[in-house]
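User: Before I run my own analysis I want an independent prediction to cross-check against. Here's the chain; please return only the structure tokens and, at the end, one sentence I can use as a sanity check.
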Amino acid sequence: MLKILHQTIILVLSLTLLITFSFSATAKSDEGLSSSRPDKLKINRNKVKLQIPEKFKEGPFKTERWLTLPEGFEITLFAAGLGKVRFMVVGDDGHIYATVPKSGKVLVLPDKNRDGVADEIFVFASRLDRPHGLAFRGKDLFVAETGRILKLTDNNADLKADKIKVISEDVPPGGGHWTRTLVIGDDDMLYLSAGSSCNICIEKDIRRAAILRYPLSGGKGELYAKGLRNSVGLAFHPKTKELWASNNGRDRLGDDLPPEELNRIIYGGDYGWPYCYGQKIPDPDFGNDKRCRSTIAPVVEMQAHSAPLGINFGFGLDFPDYLKNMLYIAFHGSWNRSKPTGYKLIGIPFKNGFPAGPPVDIVTGWLQGRKKWGRPVAPLVGSDGALYLSDDSAGAIYRINPVKKK
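Assistant: Structure tokens:
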């Protein structure tokens, strides 16, 4: 009874905070962009048919699929039949590299004829332990397994790793949240997120529910930020060089609590979990006002249980400015909400290095009523200026770009 009362009171407070939380206006005269009010952008969108190459017309793509995109855009199936594909990165060779944790593989998908469809699927590395996050530095590919960091090198450019070196075993393995996301900063340091081992608990291992930092050479990591239950998405702002992270809130507080988060990560920051959530609101199981006072509240709150995973800034896209100046976030979708939510790609407008408007839908349509046929995982800016999006439910990668003028 007390927990239900807590949920009701906190939901009212949270909605009040969300309503009063203001963003600076960013409306421009760009085609396709209008402003329904100073702090709310509206993107005109149309339902379009997913372009499915003949070779991919099987499984979930045996039938026509329709998605809703910004006006003047198209979406193509870049690759399919990939299994539970997760995170992606672009190599120095311009090819897309992608992890498939469940099969222990890193794939590479070249598009040498630049037709927007992968030519072939190569296995760059296999027999890995749930590889997830990956990042390039030169020709070295750093991959985060669930309990180690690897460095993979392809010396003869045959799209197969010739050398795999373990550079750190100082990574907390497995647990309820077993994925490890990896990015490299301008300081030549590796940043790795490790989720909690549980839904809600006090961790014995300080490396969990945290972001860790390592030298490129590997070895022992240091605690960079804590109180982050499951920050699957990490990205550095290309201009300010600040680190941003999505975060998945706890379960079992109802359909609309706690909010999912976008956080600006600072060294030594405490982001609250398991003691607090949202705007420093005490958790009913562990929190209190005093403990929450010194924590850092999220910059942006999003619908509970949307499951924000990969994030990526769009500055390198060959898109109109209003779509380039965004942080893209993949909503993997809910599993425990009475009415399903998520299952889409959203964008948060950025200006001067900071969010300048509330989240807006970019691509929707994977959720049809209570049924879903796909689950977005991670967005990626390709070497061709297109936006790529992985889907671990449909086993696919999509390519999103403006329709070419004839």
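Sanity check: Residues 32 and 44 are 6 Å apart (CA to CA).
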